[in-house]
Amino acid sequence: MALTLQNVSKRVGADIHIRDVSLHLETGSLNVLLGPTLSGKTSLMRLMAGLDKPTEGDVLVDGESVVGMAVQKRNVAMVYQQFINYPTLSVYENIASPMRVAGADKATIDAKVREAAELLKLGDLLDRTPLHLSGGQQQRTALARALVKGADLVLLDEPLANLDYKLREELRVELPKIFARTGAVFVYATTEPHEALLLGGKTATLSEGRITQFGTTIDVYNRPADLITASTFSDPPMNLVPMVKAQGMMSFGGGSVAVPSSAQDLADGAYKVGIRPHHLLLHRPEGSALEVQAAVSTTEITGSESFIHVESDGERWVALTHGVHRVEIGDRIPVYLDPSAFFVFDAADRLVAAPSGLR
Amino acid sequence: MMSSQTSKRSFKWLIPTIYIIFLMLPIYWLINMSFKTNQEILSTFTLFPAEPTLRNYAVIFSDASWYSGYINSMIYVGLNTVISVSVALPAAYAFSRYRFLGDKHLFFWLLTNRMAPPAVFALPFFQLYSAFGLIDTHIAVALAHCLFNVPLAVWILEGFMSGVPKEIDETAYLDGYSFPKFFVKIFVPLIASGIGVAAFFCFMFSWVELLIARTLTVTAAKPIAATMTRTVSASGLDWGVLAAAGVLTIIPGALVIYFVRNYIAKGFALGRV
């Protein structure tokens, strides 16, 4: 089954939740919707599921419009960020419920429920009711229910957001594999760029109800079409450096550096240069780099990595470095901008030059 | 230090005890009277029945004009509870799940029906039911009591239903449940305690309501409370029987309270806990 959205918009009162979205999702594909909260991920999924009707545009399944079709007939499974199960039914009945409604025979139901429970490590919990489970177990119950349904379209709306770290790591690896076997169109919404990268497949970045870019995850990451996509697909946000290109040099503040090869053909003028936090260096790299004096405003140490927030010429940047760095707040330190990692955006925020290779 | 603590502690149980004694005294006195003879009630003051007798209860259970009052009351109260809850369920679902023009006003207007004294409605009801020949039927009283029980049930059930996330509805639809199937199999069990509380309140208000019930009935559907007010005869009041009747009117309410006691607090908060 292929799902197509044609110029879909959704307005609720005066608020525009989705603006003119067109997407084509292939059979058996893994698609990530990436965007901050309130960017319209859930709204878009509800439109895909048929829970909401688009104000404008059309939703097509294999070329046929499904707008206005009852959700019961759509063969869609959806898992919410909140753990949604039927509290009065046991875990077994929760997982079995879509098959029971469909009228499957007992033996099939039993086999499928036990298989799904095995996959999602719910084997020992089948007799309990969801309210007696931990959050992770509740969410796995919801996922198992989505799995047994054998839906053509599986929508997971930030399914791991409310889970603890370890479970998240585990399930994130397992989920695409589990659902890939079913051949369904798989849509996964997340706010975290690294989750999109780990899942792979294709990514659509959302901002304020618009799809800013849709393509292979790695392509979107490597060549974000514009500034909004780049900042959506970067956590912590991409650092922006206003630079002026003139006579083969890019300059900021007092310093300048040779224009990177990718940007050599650009006309002289003002550009915005994006640098991912792990390319804002605290030590001089080999090769040329632009050295900028910056004042440390905050440091966050996460264990193996440190985020160092700096300020220079009114610009605020974040450097992600390995290991624990001891810098005092207020210190003036040199930071180095590696030109080979420059994302160059023009005045209209469109990408005009990107680093070659995965950065 | 020790003495002040003990005196504090003594206050702690004293006040509630006094309060409970004041509350329970009339009920105790009613029960006490119901086991006494008329002569003892009228002539002496005794804390316990001197010669305990079951005559008063025997009168009620053997005299049709007495026990039919109970049967009538139970029939219309039962009818009313069933009608109120089954009408309120879909209404409450609509209020909790859908936004429509004037929904909040309508919800408030429903409640205002509870604010008017029943006496206001007694006359129009009497006229209306006479016109349809419904006077002195159980269904007449049951329907009339819907006036204040349906809004109450809607109000209580709406609170319980709003406590159920809308996503459960949607998940059920996605799983393939039709609306009626979802409502009966998934939703109603989820708000079972709310339905219990709503039914209890409907039962209680219908059980204690006297004015409309008496206005709309003559003999065939006469409620027990009306029977009790009409016992003054030429031979004077039969105190003992009246007390026994009073005790018997308390029992059904007490029984129902016992079964829903765990949900009552939530019910008073209208599910908004």
From TrEMBL, chain A:
Residues 3-233 form the ABC transporter domain. Keywords: ATP-binding, Cell membrane, Membrane, Nucleotide-binding, Transport. One of its GO terms (cellular component) is ATP-binding cassette (ABC) transporter complex, substrate-binding subunit-containing. Pfam families: ABC_tran, TOBE_2. It comes from the Bacteria. PROSITE patterns: ABC_TRANSPORTER_2. InterPro entries: AAA+_ATPase (IPR003593), ABC_transporter-like_ATP-bd (IPR003439), ABC_transpr_FbpC (IPR015853), ABC_transpr_MalK/UgpC-like (IPR047641), Mo/tungstate-bd_C_term_dom (IPR008995), NA-bd_OB-fold (IPR012340), P-loop_NTPase (IPR027417), Transp-assoc_OB_typ2 (IPR013611). GO terms for molecular function: ABC-type ferric iron transporter activity; ATP binding; ATP hydrolysis activity. CDD domains: ABC_Carb_Solutes_like. Belongs to the ABC transporter superfamily. This is ABC transporter ATP-binding protein. It comes from Pelagibius litoralis.
